[in-house]
Design a protein that fits this description.
The structure holds two protein chains of two kinds. Chain A is built from twelve helices and no strands. By secondary structure, chain A is an all-alpha fold. In chain A, α10 runs parallel beside α11. Chain A starts with 22 loop residues before the first helix and ends in an 8-residue tail after the last helix. Classes of the chains: A mainly alpha, B mainly alpha.
Chain lengths: 312, 320
């Protein structure tokens, strides 16, 4: 359709001499992502958390690379009585293993498990939530009953049971178990978004244009419904990491020589009297990780919600 | 109200069946079997077969499930209906019921401490919003919320049992002091603190938010403009309304505490349900594991129902 010329559309730019300053042009146009970044950075704790998270991720990648096999290499010449040095800032443990490198390796394990578990949570949650929300009817009913059932199961105990029976010490089993019990929140959020979006104008328009269900869901609805999933996933990292640590602490997760913040705590427990600092290292690392993930989640929630638009 | 409760209970039936199927399948379809520990060269295949028959593991999974499920749910007053433990041969029901008082002590006390501490903190924060005390408490509650239970338990043990020698390291009673209430309370201090610190962090946040919401209402302004004392406005007008969402929280926390106490109970070797469950998982004691999961699931369902009913009871504006 040819655009009608000559008739200025209200709000559209009309060419004018360059000297004349238009008031409207003084207001910068902000895209959605610019607004998101602005809102996120205004949340001071979230910005700090982002920095902390980046530092933790970089450390968990860099130090195990630098240290090589230091995270499991025992030594007969080093021991807990060695003073801390540049090579071993946190000293050596009862087997002569460099605690700092072991800690970094444990952090790496935690982050890896947290990341992949959250990937399952987000993937499964989005799939179930979008199917339930888009199709509605009996499919929705059945899927939501499944969600109710999973929510009613004692989560930690179920994970424990699954991991213990499927084979303790297996990273994949741990990731799978955490993912399979944790997707319900994401599914509910996506479903709620889909119920709202289904009636929205742009979805109706896509339908009227004859787009297939598949195209509507994947191209139009999922991108719009993703904000709550991103938030839930970030917060889910905190839960997954703590669950893994608790499993390893109880002896069902990763076992030495594999390094995990949880099994480092189990080991530290045996040195309560002689090495009281040992339970601080993995504990503080775990808390920093959890705090970073939860503040990041809070900040993202505030930033991604378009209903909280800041007047520019 | 009665019809609402009945309807909710009927809706719970498919959920109970679902929980039973899922946990039964996890227990029975995973590799390994409780018989494995007896398979040594000195045990004859005949004995192994007898054991398999004794535990009822020779039948097909659907038959096993049918037998277990019908007995578990249809004969709640039959002591043997939940089967016998694979480890010591005691009726599962007896084992479970023997642990309930310990768990109730732990959860009950920590809930009591939580309510007593968290509600005043939340009110104080809301009344003095953005003050220094509000900011400091918010920081502490954020950190408290991030503390992993088992780590906090370990820290408390190390500080107060190992270094200061004030409280016992583990267990429910000192040797030879079974049934001594003071001794029990003394043993309760650390595990209750562990659970309460994390609960207080969460609850005070809710309380603060709820109180702030109420303080913004018109009727609070009216009460203030009538010239009522601050104390009266806060405690008589605001607090009672701000408590309504907290009642719901109570219903949702109880089941979480009962099953979530598993970690705390294990850290302190507290002889409760959670500790029993963790031990049973370690020993592949199928009947005990299943019974623990079932009890956990039923607690969640009843807790949700209780939360909704309590909501209607304390808030007359809500009817079902």
């Amino acid at each position: 359709m040819a655009r009608s010329e000559g008739l200025p559309v209200p709000g559209a730019h009309v060419s004018r001499p360059a000297t004349e300053i238009d008031e409207v042009d003084l207001v910068p146009v902000r895209t959605y992502w610019q607004l998101v970044r602005r809102r996120f950075l205004q949340h001071r704790m979230a910005a700090i958390a982002l920095v902390l998270m980046v530092v933790l991720i970089v450390a968990s990648i860099a130090f195990p690379l630098i240290g090589g096999d230091a995270w499991f290499k025992t030594s007969l010449t080093h021991g807990p009585k060695d003073p801390s040095s540049l090579a071993a800032p946190l000293g050596y443990d009862n087997l002569g293993i460099n605690i700092f490198y072991r800690l970094m390796r444990g952090l790496q394990t935690s982050l890896t498990i947290g990341f992949f578990a959250v990937l399952i949570i987000a993937g499964l949650g989005t799939t179930v939530g979008s199917i339930a929300g888009y199709l509605g009817g009996w499919v929705d009913n059945v899927l939501m009953r499944v969600v109710d059932i999973v929510l009613s199961l004692p989560t930690f105990f179920l994970v424990l049971m699954f991991v213990a029976f499927m084979g303790s010490g297996n990273v994949f089993v741990i990731i799978f178990a955490i993912g399979l019990t944790g997707w319900t929140t994401a599914a509910r959020l996506v479903r709620a978004e889909f119920l709202r979006l289904r009636e929205s104008d742009f979805v109706q328009a896509a339908k009227a244009l004859g787009a297939s269900d598949r195209r509507i869901v994947i191209r139009h609805m999922i991108p719009s419904a993703l904000a709550p999933v991103v938030v839930a996933s970030t917060l889910g990292i905190a839960d997954s990491v703590v669950t893994e640590a608790a499993l390893s602490f109880l002896g069902f997760g990763l076992r030495p020589p594999e390094a995990s913040l949880g099994n480092m705590l189990t080991n530290a427990q045996d040195y309560f009297y002689r090495q009281p600092l040992w339970i601080w290292y993995p504990g503080i690392t775990l808390i920093l990780l959890v705090l970073a993930a939860s503040f990041l989640g809070d900040g993202l929630r505030d930033a991604l919600d378009p209903r909280q638009r800041i007047e520019a | 109200m009665a019809t609402y409760i009945v309807r909710r209970l009927l809706q719970a039936i498919p959920i109970v069946i679902g929980i039973s199927v899922i946990s039964f399948l996890i227990v029975h379809l995973t590799p390994g079997s409780p018989i494995d520990k007896f398979r040594t060269p000195r045990v004859s295949p005949e004995t192994i077969n007898n054991l398999i028959r004794l535990y009822g593991l020779d039948e097909s999974i659907p038959v096993q499930f049918g037998k277990w499920f019908s007995k578990f749910w249809l004969f709640p007053f039959d002591n043997t209906a939940w089967g016998y433990s694979f480890t010591d041969g005691l009726p599962v029901r007896d084992k479970i019921f023997a642990r309930i008082p310990s768990t109730l002590w732990l959860t009950g006390m920590s809930l009591l401490v939580t309510v007593i501490v968290a509600i005043p903190i939340g009110v104080l924060q809301a009344v003095r919003q953005y003050s220094w005390s509000d900011k400091i408490i918010t920081t502490f509650s954020t950190i408290g919320y991030a503390l992993p239970t088992f780590w906090l338990g370990l820290m408390l043990k190390q500080t107060f049992s190992v270094q200061l020698n004030l409280f016992p390291l583990f267990g429910q009673n000192s040797f030879g002091k079974q049934g001594d209430l003071l001794d029990l309370l003394w043993h309760l201090v650390l595990p209750v603190t562990t659970l309460a610190v994390i609960q207080v962090a969460g609850w005070s946040r809710y309380m603060r938010a709820s109180m702030l919401e109420v303080l913004r209402q018109d009727y609070i302004r009216t009460a203030r403009s009538k010239g009522l004392a601050d104390r009266q406005v806060i405690f008589k007008h605001a607090l009672r309304n701000a408590m309504i969402p907290i009642v719901t929280l109570l219903g949702l926390t109880v089941p979480a505490l009962l099953s979530g106490a598993a970690i705390t109970e294990t850290v302190f070797s507290w002889p409760g349900l959670g500790f029993l469950g963790v031990q049973a998982v370690t020993e592949r004691d199928y009947p005990v594991v299943l019974a623990t999961v079932m009890i956990g699931g039923v607690m969640v369902i009843l807790g949700n129902l209780l939360a909704d009913v309590a909501y209607a009871v304390v808030d007359p504006r809500i009817t079902y």
